[in-house]
Amino acid sequence: MAILETHDLTKRFDELVAVDRVNLSVEAGEFRSVIGPNGAGKTTLFNTITGALRASEGEVVFEGEDVTALPSYERVRRGIGRSFQITNVFGGLTALENVRLAAQSIPSREMSVGSQLFRDKNRFDDVTAHAQRVLEDVGLGEHAETKASTLAYGDQRRLEIGLVLATDPEVVLLDEPTAGMGVEETESTMALVDDVLAEQTLLLIEHDIDLVMDVSDKITVLNRGSVVRTGTPEEVASDEEVQAAYLGGGHA
Amino acid sequence: MVTGGTLLTQLLNGLSVGMVYVLLAAGLSIIFGVMDVINFAHGEFYALGAYLAVGIAAALSGVTGGFWIALVAAPLIVGVIGGLTERVTIRPLYGRNPLYHILLTFGLVLVIADGIEIIWGTQPKNFAPPALLSGPITIAGFQYSLYNYFVIAVGALIAAGTWLALTETRVGIIIRGGSQDRGMVRALGIDIDRYYTLVFAFGCVLAAFAGIVLGAKQEVALGMGNAIIIPAFVVVVLGGLGSFRGAVVGGLGIGIVQTLTQTYVPALTGVIVYLLMVGILLVKPQGLFGNPEWQNHGGEEGDLLTGGGGGILDTTTRRYLAAALVGVLALVPLGIGVTYSSYIPNSLVLNVLVWALFALSLDFVMGYAGLVSLGHVLFYGVGAYATVMMAMYVTPVFWVGLLAGVALALAVAWFVGYLSIRVSGVYFAMITLGFAQLAYNLVTKFDITGGSDGLYTGYDATYGLGIGEVGQVSLLGDIQLFYYVVLALVVGSYLVARQIMRAPFGSVLQAIRESEDRAEFLGYDTVEYKRRAFMVSGGLAGLAGGLATINSFGVGPSFLFWLKSGEVIVMTLLGGMGTLYGPMLGAGAFLGLKEILLTFGESTPGLLGEVLSQWQGILGLIFVVFVIYVPEGLVSLPETLQARFGAGGGGGGESATDATDAEVSD
Amino acid sequence: MTPMLELDGIESGYGETRVLGGVNATVDEGEVVALVGRNGVGKTTTLRTILGSVEPWAGTVTYRGEDITDLGDVETVQRGIGLVPEERRIFPGLTVTENLELASYGGSETENRRDLDWVFDTFENLDERRENRGSDLSGGEQQMLAIARALVSGADLLMLDEPTEGLAPMIVDRVMEVIEDVRDAGITVLLVEQNVRVALDLADRAYVLAHGEIVHEATPEELRADEETVERYLGVSFAD
Q1: Are B549 and B431 in a shared domain?
Q2: Three-class SS string for B354-409?
Q3: What global pTM score does this model have?
């Protein structure tokens, strides 16, 4: 069953159609990558699905529910988590507090006003335990009390993934999680994604075909805002239109 | 009956007032557009212009054309003073959050206002226009004041000249470019910083000119700057920050609307302007002609600097210090009659406690959720009015009144927050200011709120126990029960606020301060969180307002005056925001210093005493120094001192501020 | 021959975050040099460090034999280095003419300095829109204006940051033509592009930037032939 679908999803900025009638259908448990050359509309598609941008037309359907009009925090609550391309953690707070905040998000809706306002945040044992588990999972157990802004870059990216993981998402959208990383860091990050997010449905936005060839169940190729092809890595790699999308550019 | 003649008269009156607004708003708007400085001192430069003109005209009495010489010379002098002010005080702050400019220029307001009082005294001055411009003149059968024609003509001429200078000259184009994207002007190899002094000085010249023209029409008096600055801001915000066109349309529009309202709908006088501003901002958050894009490249905007959180003092030490401070406060009344009169605890310390609570309430939203409320006095005032009115009209039981005050403040905070929290930054600050001014003008209109006199009452049946009047229940001699009630409520409020910050709700507020975007993508409805924080803050401010009425035996419009909003921001920053206790210490430092200055001023003869009595000006100077050198507030002083003088530092100077700081509590 | 611009061991970043970890590069007079790499590797930071709006942590920037490392952005531009920034940053409230006039008040008096007449002769679409406000221009027109603006300010070395970003393919072609014209006029170009194809079509030489360091320097032909580098650092495949 498809957990996340888009129907003719379109996003326009004035004259530019950044996302043009995109239809996606992602199965539960699938690892889907969306690739495409620069300017193909990957990040805009991403933002329209997560709610950072409002769709101009079309719909986003999550677990059978039309979420197109919902604000982003409501989508997160329903189980759509996202990471940021540029590391966006709470720099002034400790690594543990970062993850704890993420872990607290969903349970906080069930809390009484009294405990929300007055009960010590560290005395919600479930939340704290969950946060600590997530921190261990992403390999930052030793850095629990380190201020996030002083973590090494690679560790900040790990924390970023920990933040997403701690909200218990069904679907995780990852926006170029290895942007700006060296070769080794890239590999370890992809291994981390594969490892800790194994149970989630993944939608990974990526520039680099090779990086996603081995890990993806299916790949969707985007060019100039439209879907060129969706298929298994092998199908996509041998597709002529895909070759053209990457090689065609604007000028040649 | 509206006749053509009176309507025309009113329109012309409106235009002449509007021209004054245009001159003020144009300067404010350009200064904000180019430098991001919200210049609260603009009204004082306006007043300074008028006073200088009076001085020059007086010195030249007998000389023909004295008025004209003053009209030209005074603005130029004010321009030079303005340019120097920019160089010395504002320049070090570029790149910081605009809030620091508010604080700085607020300090300048106090300094300049007191400077004027020291030089020219408290009596209003008459500054008559020359005979040439006096009296009415009849044109095409319509009789009207010649001087008003003069104001309109000269204002239009200057506005047009400014417009031409902005569009047709080299400097003008650079300044307009700078107001849209400063960084890009620099990237074209133009040193835009060099133009800041010029822009500021020019704004001051326009303000001074406006002051002279209006001063000659009405009178030149203390407080004329305070009275004009808020409407001038309304014009700027309404027209769109940084937009010259907006300043012209907004200025003339407000002038005409104000005048027509006075004549035809007197009930709305004073209110209409703020209603308009709030309404327009809610529909069009950038104002009428505001450029929605100017903010996008303002990425240079600095962060709000929060206090160091005690830094070098460990938690246990701070806890002891806090307990000691509360202990000392509890013992203060015992000194009555021994070392000081009952004035110290029952008036001074009580006042400090109430303001500490008020500052705490502001820190709750400003230091933790990043919401800069320029109209926080609204909740303080609403709490005060509701408390007193409950006692007068419903039941004299003090508790009930206090509860009503908190409840109404909460409700008003919900309403204001509901409408305005989605508007960001400076516009949020201005909307809150607008609502506060609305309330200020409303309470003067109705008998039920006591009009401009206010309401005065005692609270019979103290505390609902029927032992006597609040403020009159003595435990022993002059030691009042009320003192301990307030102390308990203030300390309790602090503990509650601190606990909220340690609970899930507070932790989300801190996340929002770090990165609102990220918090939203963790599943938090950040707007809702900010609204609720605003309500808590409003409730606390309402409690402070309610408690304040006991000391004053009632409430008056001054409880809603905008200067109080400025003062509480000053206290918050002075102490160190984002710490909860810092702003409370800031309130103590502010009021303590004021008291010391007043006492010394009274007992010191001669000029020095007179200067010291101008406590506001001296406090203003201290803030200016603080904003520039200690932006993280008093609570960061131990760290700053340690950094400067090494590990053993700080011990050497037990200055007043040091002593306060040593009491930093957890 | 000494290079026109030389970066020697440039380290740079924001706050505590290091972005550049020792960048070495040169640009010779008359060249078009491309700086390519994936998102977030430090391309824009390199330009900003050259310009002086970001202060380098270590290393030197030399321009025409002069050490300009410590100069601010204004002084750098006054020496003849011009920037066409990301997202173009046209003054939205100024007309096309005013945008250009403003540029003509700054910059440096180089031989390559162009006047407004030249701009309007060269860019017909700008000529037609002289009195339109910057905010009323299309993306392509804004890009032309941004380039023209840098030329009017007298750039000898023109730094372009993502000039084709967000533009329709037809407009991309037009922008590329303009950049070629700029080169033919004798102006040196340092081009930052994520669109590798555009970059390699225009450049004489390219640097590949990855995690804050130059990992490769090559001619476009060499790069096109070097599948491994291209796929690894640029995430683009040229293979058939």
Answers
A1: yes
A2: HHHHHHHHHHHHHCCCCCCCCCCHHHHHHHHHHHHHHHHHHCCCHHHHHHHHHHHH
A3: 0.84
